[in-house]
Amino acid sequence: MSGSRLPGSPSDREAARMHLELAGLTRSFGSLVANDHIDLVIEPGEIHCLLGENGAGKSTLMNMLYGLLQPDSGEILIDGEKVSISSPSDAIARGIGMVHQHFMLVPVFTVAENIMLGRETTRGAGVLDRKKAHALVRELSDRYGFDVDPEALVENIPVGVQQRVEIIKALTHDAKVLILDEPTAVLTPAEIDELIEVMRQLKDSGTSIVFITHKLKEVKAIADKITVIRRGKVVGTAEPSATEEELAELMVGRAVDLKVDKAPAEPGEVQLEVRGLTVIDERGHTAVDNVDLEVRAGEILAVAGVQGNGQSELAEALLGLIPIAAGTISLDGRDLSGRSTRQRLEAGIGYVPEDRAHDGFVGSFSVAENLVLDLFRKPPFGSGVSLHTGEIEKNATSRVDEFDIRTQSIDLPVSSLSGGNQQKVVLAREMSRPLKLLVASQPTRGVDVGSIEFLHTRIVHERDQGTAVLIVSTELDEIAALADRVAVMYRGKVVGVVPADTPRDELGLMMAGASQREAEIAATEHPTTLGTI
């Protein structure tokens, strides 16, 4: 690891603090202006939150700072001096580190080997100097309380610990500014709390942190300063004392009601019954492990859990998109075993997939065409090989109005719409026929705050029409807003089904594998930071 050294003592790092300024940074992709003359100042030793909706331009801006993209115009200044950052190597050399939303670690390598990667040094007859890497990891782990084992294989450690490994990698390069891009997307609430503590320790040691997020609670918990970006422009700054409603209004440009107006559920008969459901994934791992679930007419059951714990496979199995190894799925008392996906849709299931662009619509088809994707074979939209274009257009005009789909024309391709409006198209199509069950997987992922408000309202409306609703979400705010009951999944199993008013801390502990009783006790003794907001 020649050329690398450990950060010095706190006083050394104090002397090495960096003042970073972005002046008029602009970047376009074709006709899309992703960043429009952005000015931003990162003071030494501060946690600066960059807040904005998905697609607002936050990541593009940070990718320019880290050398992954080049600006069309504007300047980057370090300690008042203009610099050129043409690659991540340039950024690292200048003291800028970045932890990406999707970690850049090699799963089959140890922690120490990942730290060495790209900076390998040898001793003796060409033998890798692992001892030096171990010392680096151990020293930083002890200093910041990371509790990271240098010998551990990355594939065997939790995602929260993997994130600390990424931070250690940056610190071994003497990062004075650390960019964290949506760092909490795959963490449990307890792991988020631990990350917040790590960020505070790094700040105290002199490191500046740029924290990119769209989650308002996290911003309020950790920020020293907040800059809000909307549609590629800086639209304002705010203090952490600002309310969530004030921050949301800055993000969206209008007042937003963050609370769902929802009357108590009036559950009816069981509509969906799942017994002993087991799914084996493509790697031969058990993704869904002997799951039992019930969803009644007129209620919303939310499936909570950190991404990758079997929730996606559960939703896909319900639709027949992937095969099941064991168990049964019944809708309104009828076994769906052997039924195709089309037959399940025709039986009364509506489906909002996790990845709308891949599974929810055809981007090159028009808005009108996408609104009848699973209906065009039957009257009034079609018969035989003929399509009734007049009825398709009439339907589209009605749905666009009902679901507030913002489009200049129903003939435009869906790919031209914003993420929120694309999701409205999917939801409008699925709700355009009588449903017995609505399965919505990550229903507001990549959707702006204003559209979230509308989508949540429509989902609750569907429940109130007597439909059974199953929501899969990794967002606890969304779970709290929509759920009548919550099923928590961990490593393919349902560890408990709890009431919707279960405290956030308890849900977070269950998401990490604790039983309901264990979670109740632990949450009382050790509340998390976010649980108190």
UniProtKB/TrEMBL annotation:
Gene3D superfamilies reported for this sequence: P-loop containing nucleotide triphosphate hydrolases (3.40.50.300)
Keyword Translocase belongs to the record: no
All copies of domain ABC transporter, residue ranges: 20-256, 272-516
Keywords: ATP-binding, Nucleotide-binding
Plastid is among the record's keywords: no
GO terms, molecular function: ATP binding
UniProt cross-references to PROSITE patterns, sorted A to Z: ABC_TRANSPORTER_1 (PS00211), ABC_TRANSPORTER_2 (PS50893)
InterPro entries for the chain: AAA+_ATPase, ABC_carbohydrate_import_ATPase, ABC_transporter-like_ATP-bd, ABC_transporter-like_CS, P-loop_NTPase
Protein name in UniProt: ABC transporter ATP-binding protein
Organism of this sequence: Kribbella deserti
